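Consider the following assembly input.
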Amino acid sequence: MILVCLILIPFIGGLLCWQAERYGEQPPRWIALGTMLLELALVLGVWWYGDYGLNAMQGASDWVLEWRADWIPRFGIEVHLALDGLSLIMIALTGLLGVLAVVCSWHEISRRIGFFHLNLLWILGGVVGVFLAIDLFLFFFFWEMMLVPMYFLIALWGHSGSTGNTRIQAATKFFIYTQASGLLMLVAILGLVFAHHAATGEYSFSYEALRHTAQNELSPQMAWWLMLGFFIAFAVKMPVVPLHGWLPDAHAQAPTAGSVDLAGILLKTAAYGMLRFALPLFPEASQAFAPVAMGLGILGIFYGAILACGQHDLKRLVAYSSISHMGFVLIGIYSGTELALQGVVVLMVAHAFSASGLFIISGQLYERLHTRDMRLMGGLWGRIKGLPGIALCFVAASMGLPGTANFVGEFLVLFGTFDAWPWVVVVASGGFVLAAIYSLFIMQRVYFGPAKEETPLGGLDGRETVMMLGLLALVLWVGLYPGPLLDTSEAAMQNVERIMTLEETPALPEETP
Amino acid sequence: MTSLLALSPLILVCATAIVVMLAIAWRRCYDLTATLTVIGLNLALAAQLLAWWQAPLDVTPLLTVDGLSIFGGVLILVATLACATLGHAYLEGARGPREEYYLLLLCAAAGGIALVSSRHLASLFFSLELLSMPLYGMLAYTYRERGALEAGVKYMVLSAAASAFLLFGMALLYAFTGHLDFAGLGGALASAGGDGWLLAGMGMMLIGLGFKLSIVPFHLWTPDVYEGSPAPAATFLASASKVAVLVVLLRLLQSAPATQDAWFHSLLAVLAFVTMLVGNLLALMQQDLKRLLGYSSIAHFGYLLVALVINEGLAVETAGIYLVTYVLTTLGAFGVVTLLSSPYGGADASRLHHYRGLFWRRPYLTAVLTVMMLSLAGIPLTAGFIGKFYIVAVGVEASRWWLVGGVVAGSAIGLFYYLRVMVTLFLPEPGMQRRDATTDWAQRAGGVVVLALAALVVLLGVYPAPMIDWVRLMAAT
């Protein structure tokens, strides 16, 4: 039942925010903050009282918590929610970034506050749904549903670019890319369901049943096509390079909270989807596909990093660096060793922290300078109190300096991949050089160099300081002591590794009566 | 007696039409006429239950009452009720006679109900004409508007041409088989094989019916007629009239195995594919909401044709589910247009700029339109998603990958214009003059209908099981 609450809390909170707008500007903000804090507290409670270590896995079920109810009996569709270490980490991340998103838009959003928070919280609710859903129909349901509020967030509260309408174009592009690829996933899901129907004579969208079918009933060719359907949907969202067209625009036009959600959580749903669905459902096809995925990952690392070096818009730069980081995630996922998969989890968390940090910083700079063009910045080190130092730390995290969470993640990914794919690792490591270059560009162009003006700008206020320092503390904590995180996701990742390396086929699920 | 009970919905609608006519002759009273109409339609809706207890039953060689006809009848009656209610607010301010609108509406509804029960080419033809004739009048009802008059005349001329094709096709079929009832026709066609004349006959009938469903390339009238005609009439045209024709087409295809002919089959498949893509592509840049909905309805019937083409497995169920979601959504979307345009005062408020910033003035009305747009686009949480899910499912089940690809591509293109409408609703308002709904719209009958439709669309999107059960029950009989 607690899983249902986790999904419902943001939705209900969002409606309350909308209605609270009539009482003034502040109530929606406080309600949104309260909602997300409640969500976060609930997740941390689940984390504290649950057992996610290896021992938990020895039991009959892979799931620590489970909840199911009939939904559409005609097709055997259930509301089936389940939680393991991986989804727990992701939901905790969602709660945390949700709090951040609410806090960082405290002053930025001044129009239609209630409706803004409705959209913000509904995105988060949809994302939590994605992380919990185990029934494939339900997963798709949430996957598509979270796009709508995100669309509104970008289209209505985004920054207009040079020409009047670009935020709407960016939002539309985002929506069409993800929705169209989502439909491919729907086709793949249905293909799987009908294969199951042909084999057993009944409809089911359940994870276990379909996994059984996918591994035993499908012809290799069919499995390959269906895997591709899933992969494309996730690759668009991640984004993997040839399919990344929506990302820079969406980030550049989105409000800060939108960017934080987009980079911090929405991109992670794709990696989560690969770990949870694409790999376990089609291990053999995925293994055959791994060289292509690795190639795409390397392409993404370099493409993202090189384009990041050439950007003038601060947010676009961070957006392209996200593409580069996601390249590492993709390599880690398809290498399939436990070490690399653990690295992927840490890297996802680390990237969520560092990218959100950088997006929030760009938002704060925008609030003070009303531009994100780095050519108009420069020499800010002396003009803003506090912010440059924090920015330096986040930039260092983004380039993966030891001691930060990103270092742990990237190191584990490369270390875990080296055994099987030494050349991939060698080439990918080159990405670090480029990462250092664009990271230093940020510092050099924004904070150092000759100042354009001498007037001091407002320093960080209490809200901003607490937010940034808190985030920084998390980056360092995961960087210096990643143990708890690794322990939590270990069981889930071992599962994926076992499936991926085909050491043993997982125990056949008992047919549910 | 059982036959009379089985036909009671049709009889009640016809009786209501006569009562309304006498009431108008006796004394012109707008509210009384509307009330009588609504009461009659509700009685007919209740009488569908009576008919359901008799089903399946063949009533005379012309009509049959079975699950399919009751399914179509219920949808038509619901759509007619919505049109009557919406029309009431719309025509309140109209000059000239207003009562005859209900008379036309009732006649058209009777035609629709008869059409879905037809099992004979003769009854098919006369009920199709009974459905179309009053529509000419309804579409041109506000004939002082140039656009409405144009819409009415255009529909009449093209509809007459389509009827001619239909008749020619029937004549050819009759000449070669000697049968006019669907069952006999199907049997004769099956034994005759793929004779060229028979195929020509089938093709001509397809042209006639395809015109009514505005399937590409017989779609050219749709956007103009939708744009020009008064909103309640366009609502009826888009919902009840199309349901009736699609249901009879479904019945025809099911009972005439000539559709198994490879040539005819692939022709249908090509039409479906082209209809999906062309409808969506032409809608992209429209500046008029009614016109846009016209093109979108073309695309939606392209999706529906996919179910008809496949015609096995889940197909009938899919067509039923998709029709339910389509009717509810279309009624809602047109309902909002009607509310904004009423009381009648010049051309309808259907240009997109009329809707700019509507959210900040009428949040709930906008929420309704947003839900309808999302439902047309097939986004989860709305009924349209369930329909889209069914269409993709039926395509995947039959391994018709081209058609599935068409549905996916069509939906992706379609998103663009649905999103365009949606975002317009939320943009900050410019200082331009605009049309608006009356302030108490939500308390009036039309507003209640629209809100109920929105609630239903969301409810069926979240919990579709009752709808699925009902459609399966109807399809099984």
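The mean pLDDT of chain B is 88. Ask yourself how this observation constrains the way the partners meet.
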